[in-house]
Fold each of these.
Amino acid sequence: MESKKKGSHFFATLSRMKYIERWALMRNAREETLSEHSLDVAVIAHALCVLANRRHGHHVDAERAALVGLYHDASEIITGDMPTPVKYGDEQILNAYKDVEIRAEQRLLDLLPEDLREDYEDLFFGGDDAEEIYMRKLVKAADKLSALIKCMEEEEAGNREFRTAKESIWAAVQRMAADYPEVSDFVDVFLPSYGKTLDQLLGRD
């Protein structure tokens, strides 16, 4: 019983996501924090899973996808956000970073009381059944869509800095859409609304 009352730094550490800035190598019209990105990924991942279930015959856990999305980049509290050109520019660097990422996730889990670790470990690492794997692919797609939306918003703000990144990410999203029809649905139905004014979104324009 005593061990369950021992203090834990886990959630206080997670709260530091708001201090991690993304797109560190880019000039931003508006800075984006890891907290903001994680919320966007959670919302989009949930939507992709709902689309998968309603329209494409899957039985993926949309609520779980939202949680996985919230935690998907939590390791960056320790590692920081490695810029995409650096992370994916060299296979050796990518493999080394993945190892660092896993170690960072484990370090975060070690901050939890022992009786809670299994629940959160499942969010970080997950299982290997088919629908679980499919769900995690949709979380990755949500991550790309969030990045694409960021590029669109920067472009809308008159910042040309994100032009090349937008082209690259858009190509990646199109490849995902070819394999995952719910991604194509999101692109067709929801993506065009991003960048509109509040009046336009609410039908007041």
Amino acid sequence: MSDGWDGILDPGEKILWQGRPDGAFAFDWGAVFPLIFGLFFAGFALFWMVMASLAGGFFWMFGLLHFGVGVAIALGPVFWPTWRRRHTWYTLTDKRAFIATDIPFKGKKLDFYPINAGTVFSFYDEDLATIHFAEKITQTKKHGVSRTKIGFERIPDGRNVLRLMREVQDIDRQKSADPERDKT
């Protein structure tokens, strides 16, 4: 293969599907709390700047940082997922799922996740389907953890992709049941 997959795919590994998530804006209800908190934070900073400007001078400018942080807290969770999806590409092979991103100022990144008999899928069947097949666990402060589901998000041909993933699982199950099969 000379299409950029040299050195990435294993010998004999075949690409079954490639696609991209839908890049249209979609509101996630999980962003409501940060939106409200951020607007409250930015609103308080704006109020503080107005009141500080009445005293004269440039002291009010110290509120600009807080106002900017409030706006970022409010709008980041609303617009970031759409921005990320617009810079994301998906590939499914007969062994792995790849998620490639090329986000400005962060650079290119390629993550891959094995698809085998033990892979657990979560399938959200909508006009634009989402298939989760992995989970990222991040240590938070002290003893807490944060879990982030990973997968192909907002894809138009989700049922077909799920079918392909199940076929990959079935092949892995067959190989596990008959280890001699791999030697041929």
Amino acid sequence: MPRTPQPDAAPGQPAPAVTELLRAWGAGDARASEALVPLVYAELRRQAQRALRREGDGHTLQATALVHEAWLRLGGQHDAHWESRTQFLAVAAQMMRRVLVDHARTRRAQKRGGGATQLSLGDAGRAAAVQEAADAVDVLALDDALARLAVLDPRKARLVELRYFAGLSIPEAAAALGVSPATVGREWAVARMWLRRELAP
């Protein structure tokens, strides 16, 4: 990823400007990538911080490293057809999930099977430490469960990724999935129950 920019203006930035840059970047315009960084960096960093907050004590990845690794992977999406800022952030969530899973696998291999990375299945907006500790799961087990859920119900698996790894709100996830917020609310509740059952010891 290019140099770390100053805090971006993404929340107040008109969506069409970001969308136009995304499309130009997808078409191979390297200058569009440079112009895009300051517009989306802060939001990507917020995504990374939300994802890392759900890890247990002792994780070694920092938000900046997670953003940079995800950005490199996003840059490798040569056949991507960017349609909107929300879609871009959704794909960024996928990349962050992959980075976290790869990092957890590496750490586990180094520790010969020990030191599982823990994540919380609590509501994406909830910060209660006690509840998060109660909901902690192994990131690799979660990744496996999400792969199984994707076979049964791809949209619910995508929703978990958007809410859990990207920290998107119900309305943002609804926009990314092209469904109503009410539908997302219902499916989020069902997906969380399914995952808790799958991940129960």
Amino acid sequence: MIGLGSYAFFWQHSELAPRRLDAFDMLRRSAELDVELFQFCDYAPIEDLSRDEVSRLADLARELGITLELGTKGVTPDHLETYLDLATRLDASVVRSMLFSPTSRPTLVEAEAQLRQVLDAYGDAGVDLALETYEQVSSTDLVSLVEQVAHSRLGICLDPANSVAALENPRDVIARTAPYVKNIHVKDFAFTRRGGWVGFTLEGAPLGTGLLDYDYLLETVRPNERGINQVIEHWLPLHDTIDQTVQLENDWNDHNLAYLRSKNVY
């Protein structure tokens, strides 16, 4: 499936937004765009919902015909168990995470031990745990960790844009991780010269206008054939006003959904 994530509404659920969207609002906006998948990723308010609110959110998703996924940071067992419980109550079959969190930076050996403590529970619940590619951990190390743990419910959330900051070629990251991908974050990106031609800025771009070789990603990972969901995200910088930024965010959602739908056949 093709879907949206909370990063696709980053500015609209931020404190700067003139009308701040909550979790329920984002699901309704997604339904208006005929989207059947939504991922709450690095969205802290999801952890503060009461059990009743979580039940109402799950009910709303079912009513709107939207499949839910979750995203967080860190691999400590207690934290991943918390998200497994939340995933179970939301009927989410994917939890995306990263090795590091604001409070924990395990070595690969430590991360392996932590993951082994929770993966059987994820397997029993039918939930995949997808570790995201990003600049703080090389894609080679991430693949090595997944291969070492060798659990059917552990895989990779592929986001080729993130690894550029570590000087990894996006095509190399795609090829290296392809056999282990369980979830995809789709965002385009481009380099622009900074003022005075001193250095570059790496920021988001509408799909098909930047450096992401999306056709290569489709050819190599084969998400449609393998049933791998694709979640739209943005790196949209703040513009002159928040109103202008929100308008661009909505425009990018329209454009990126149309782009992915033109490239994918489900």
